[in-house]
C-alpha cells in the first residue's frame, strides 16, 4: 500500500483508493468463487482454471504497475511534496490499477482456501494447511512492512560493468515491487504440481490420515 497509495496520492485520493480497493475485494471473491463452486464443472477443471486466472491476473496487474513504478523513487517524491488528487489528470487510470490489485488479492485468497478445502475434508488436516499458509503469509507481510519502515528503495540503480555503462541508468531493480511479483509467480509455479497431484474429483478416505 505504501509503495503506491501513500507514495503517489494525497489523503483524499488515498481514502477513495482504499474504499474502492476493499469493494473490489468483494467483487473479486464473489466472481472467482462463482467459478470455483460451479457444480457442472469437474473439480480438477475448476482448480486449474482458478490457477490460470490467477496467473493471468498477476501478470496483468504487475505489468500495468511496472509502467507507473519505474517512474518514481522514494527520493523523487518526498513526504511533503504535492501529491495526486482525485481530480488530477491521470488519476482514473491509477485508481483502476488499484481496483485490479483488490480483485487479484481477493481472487488469490479465495482460490488458496478453495484448493486447501479440495485437498481434504478433515478439519484437523485443514487446520494444519491453513496454519502453514497463514504463517508464511504473515511472516512475509511483516517482512515487507519492515522493508518499508527502513526505507528500502522502490527503485535502486545498478551497474553491471563498464562495458554497458551507458545503459546503467536504465538497469533498475525495483526492490519491493519485483520481490512481490517474483514471489507470486513462484507461489503459482510451486502450487501447480500440488494441484495436479492432490486435487481429485473425490476425496479418498486414505488421504484423510494426518
Q: Percent range for helical residues?
A: 55-70%
Report the strand count: 2
Rg, please? 20 Å
SSE arrangement, N to C:
HHHHHEEH
Distance between the termini: 38 Å
For the largest sheet, list the strands in their spatial order: 1-2
Mean pLDDT: 83
Low-confidence stretches: 156-173
- Give the number of helices: 6
- Strand composition percent: under 5%
- Main sheet makeup: 2 strands, antiparallel
Q: Classify the secondary structure makeup into a structural class.
A: mainly alpha
Shape: elongated
How would you sum up this structure, described in words?
This protein has 210 residues and is mainly α. The protein has helices spanning 2-8, 11-36, 43-69, 91-119, 123-149, 175-198, and strands spanning 156-157, 172-173. Strands 1-2 form a two-stranded antiparallel ribbon. Helix 3 runs antiparallel to helix 4 (91-119).
Overview in brief:
The chain has 210 residues and is mainly alpha-helical.
Observed structural traits:
mainly alpha; 2% strand; elongated
SSE arrangement:
Elements: H1 2-8, H2 11-36, H3 43-69, H4 91-119, H5 123-149, E1 156-157, E2 172-173, H6 175-198
Antiparallel strand pairs: 1-2
